[in-house]
Amino acid sequence: MEPKIINGWDELEKCKSESHVLIIDNCSGWIAEKDADKEAWNQHHYLSTHSFYEETHKESTELLQRCGFNVVLANWDEGRT
To answer: Count H helices, E strands: the chain?
Structure first.
């Protein structure tokens, strides 16, 4: 199945993975293992407010895919002059 293109935080928050959950708050968030200890922040991955910009969107997309999310983040900088 082709990855779903995600255009914003609201769309990303609705995405599912068998092994991870998303915790989105105010245009940033965390990817956490479903069975992780809630206090074990080393088992969480941060998604910055820049996740949809420039090169960061590629890195964030790769991280999400490694965590089981079949998504590609849109690049909010494409088409800007």
So the answer is: 2, 5
